[in-house]
Amino acid sequence: MSSKRKIALACSVCGSRNYTITENPNRTERLEVKKFCKYCNKHTLHRETK
């Protein structure tokens, strides 16, 4: 039985971890997505953390 691992997306401006996604073992480089940060109050680049 395989378990789904959770990965956090951290804001590149303030560093807060606002979003979680399930891990994709096929992805080699870190995911980078523009998402809304409630602490910065604007859309910023969010990066996958380990």
Report what the structure shows.
A hairpin with a 5-residue loop joins β1 (6-11) and β2 (17-22). The protein has one domain (6-48): Ribosomal protein L33 (Rubrerythrin, domain 2), CATH 2.20.28. The relative contact order is 0.37. Strands 2-1-4-3 form a four-stranded antiparallel sheet, with no helix packed on it. By secondary structure, it is mostly beta strands. The two termini are 22 Å apart. It is 0% helix and 50% strand. It has strands at 6-11, 17-22, 32-37, 42-48. It has no helices and four strands.
Order of H and E elements: EEEE
β-strand amount: over 45%
Net shape:
elongated
Give the CATH H-level superfamily: Ribosomal protein L33
The CATH architecture name reads Single Sheet
User: What's the helix count?
Assistant: 0
Percentage of residues assigned to helices = under 10%
Strand order, largest beta sheet: 2-1-4-3
Termini distance? 22 Å
CATH class: Mainly Beta
What structural class do you assign from the helix and strand content? mainly beta
The profile of the biggest β sheet is: 4 strands, antiparallel
Predict the CATH topology.
Rubrerythrin, domain 2
Total beta strands: 4
Oligomer type: single chain
Supply Rg.
12 Å
Low-confidence stretches: none
Q: Estimate nothing, just give the exact number of structural domains.
A: 1
Short description:
This protein has 50 residues and is mainly β. Helices cover 0% and strands 50% of the residues.
